[in-house]
Amino acid sequence: MAPMRVTIIGTGYVGLTTGTALAYFGHEVTFVDKNPEIVERLRAGVPTIHEAGLAEIMEAGRCSSVFRTDIPELSGTGVVMIAVGTPSKRNGDADLSFVDAAATEVADLVQPGARLVVVNKSTVPVGSARHVEGIISRRLAARGVEAEVHVASNPEFLAEGRAVLDTLYPDRIVIGTESPIATGLLRELYAPILEQTFEPPPGSPRPERYELPPLITTTPTSAELTKYAANSFLATKISFINEFSVLAEKVGADITEVARAIGLDQRIGPRFLQAGIGWGGSCFGKDTAAVLALGSAYDYDLQLVRSAVEVNRRQRMFVVDKLQQQLKVLRGTTIGLLGLAFKGNTDDMRDSPALTLVQELHERGAVLRVHDPVAMPSAKRHFPDLPVEYADDEVQLACGCDAVVVVTDWDQYRRLPLERMAAAMRGRLVLDARNLLQRQSVTAAGLDYVGIGR
Ligand SMILES: NC(=O)c1ccc[n+]([C@@H]2O[C@H](COP(=O)([O-])OP(=O)(O)OC[C@H]3O[C@@H](n4cnc5c(N)ncnc54)[C@H](O)[C@@H]3O)[C@@H](O)[C@H]2O)c1
Questions:
Q1: Given the CA of residue 121, which atom of ligand 1 is nearest to it?
Q2: Which of 107, 136, 245, 396 is least enclosed by beta carbons within 10 angstroms?
């Protein structure tokens, strides 16, 4: 493989993981983030996000990686990936201001004669490839610079918590562009993944029976819509099982049994069928909002997506109400929350259900104590005013608690020191909002078990 020059703009979950994988393959990667603290930590070889296997490939690709706070001059042939945030605007639409800023900076640094592919890796609304192309070509014309710049949409489908595995062994790679040159260069860039020619890092082995991922080439609009369709579908699938979890409780069924039985149907599949407190994270909420805003711009109401969002909101409140039903009066109680991250294996707390629990229970007068294996530093940094006490471990968390709630599906919470927790608690309630625990183990420790839909 001939190494290519790649510039990654934005080193968050997507930019850092993608760039690190590309450097691991031997491409020459320049990581740019406008946040100097992030750049400083990355230069020191410290990953700025919690992802299994990331530190290992970062170290292995160190010689091919450069970290900086500004974009270098862009000359010769190369790929530029825009992987900045696209948060929600008030009307739900994606806010493209970070993308616009990045595209403008890129345009200002393109050198005469350069041959570049600029990739929208961020999740962006339909029309964004053309929008970015417009920003760049107008800027180049104003500067009087002649260069070849091809724009492509290359949506990212990684799941946080397994970002490295999803990047090295994706189900597919989607490239949406009108430019055959862009397709050719991106095929070359991703050749190590498409052909699986790299040596798997020991910490992120190739999954058994993994098949070579197809490269799907589409129009930019199809690629852009694909990303929103994928996230809307996944959010809907989770909301579907959550909706049935409430019905299961009403009729006396066990949703875990129902989920297993329907998940074995190959048309349905077992993933994303775990009933619980609902989805969160940086993507599903903002992407479903953006899809609804897109629909309304075309005078079209996406009723399924709208319902998935509403069911998710209701599911979080279902957990709060369950707690209230069990304890009757929340004012003056101490509640322990096991988990802050929006799901296990990540430190990301963006739109985490834990934030809803903290807010709702705090408003109802409960004192909150929290524990998370990795997200506590990010909580202290990003949400310094969270009205909570931080516990070092699960037993300290349980001390004097009237109830303990499992909020995040961390694997270590499957093996809670239940007897020591029971001895430390004031009350007996364990509310398993992720259906992670065995009822018998909890009751054997002298505690009361309440799950979701069981
Ligand atoms: N997080 C995920 O699991 C995931 C998965 C697929 C797609 N996406 C999409 O990818 C995009 C990025 O998501 P993320 O979670 O990695 O974001 P993030 O917030 O973790 O990281 C974005 C980074 O971009 C930097 N940045 C912003 N503007 C910049 C600029 N002009 N120059 C240099 N750096 C700049 C920020 O400082 C930040 O570090 C979003 O559109 C998101 O929807 C995210």
A1: 10
A2: 396
